[in-house]
Amino acid sequence: MLNVIQNIKNLIFRPSLSREAALAYYNRLPDRIRVEWFRDGKFIIGRIKIENEEGFMTQAISAQEFVDMVNDGLFAYYDIPNEYLGVLKKCKQFVPPANEFAKLNDAAIEKSEIGFQKERCLA
């Protein structure tokens, strides 16, 4: 019940966003991550390694959904406040190279590893 009330308050009384805070949250995210992924039936399952340490796992059905889940997982892992998610999601922080994205879309490829690099959009 408290979450519902807090969500309503956030909708009515939207806090103004600070450019400095958005930049700080953006800089909190790592510059690079590695994602080892494999297929399990219709799912793409990935293990995200952050700066050579285990981070978290995620799964999705489509390649684009998988990339979105990796990004959403990073926002949660680094405790980015909800009010700044919209700003940071516009950046699409971690986007795989085109050839690696094509592998995610190719059901014939059972597993691979992707190096994601943070896009630079907040300066």
List keywords for this structure.
123 residues, alpha+beta, Double Stranded RNA Binding Domain, 5-stranded antiparallel beta sheet, 5 helices, 42% helix
Would you spell out the secondary-structure blueprint of this structure?
Layout: H1 2-12, H2 19-28, E1 32-40, E2 43-50, E3 53-60, H3 63-77, H4 82-89, E4 94-95, H5 98-105, E5 111-118
Antiparallel strand pairs: 1-2, 1-5, 2-3, 4-5
CATH topology: Double Stranded RNA Binding Domain
Question: Order of strands side by side in the largest beta sheet?
Answer: 3-2-1-5-4
What coarse outline follows from CA principal-axis ratios?
globular
Radius of gyration: 16 Å
- Report the top-level CATH class: Alpha Beta
Total of helices:
5
What would you say this structure looks like, in words?
The structure is a single chain. This protein has 123 residues and is α+β, with helices and mostly antiparallel strands. The protein has one domain: Double Stranded RNA Binding Domain (2-Layer Sandwich). Helix content is 42%, strand content 28%. The chain is built from five helices and five strands, in the order ααβββααβαβ. The chain has helices at 2-12, 19-28, 63-77, 82-89, 98-105; strands spanning 32-40, 43-50, 53-60, 94-95, 111-118. It has a five-stranded antiparallel β-sheet. A hairpin with a 2-residue loop joins strand 2 and strand 3. The longest helix is centred in the middle third of the chain and has 15 residues, at 63-77. The N and C termini lie far apart (39 Å).
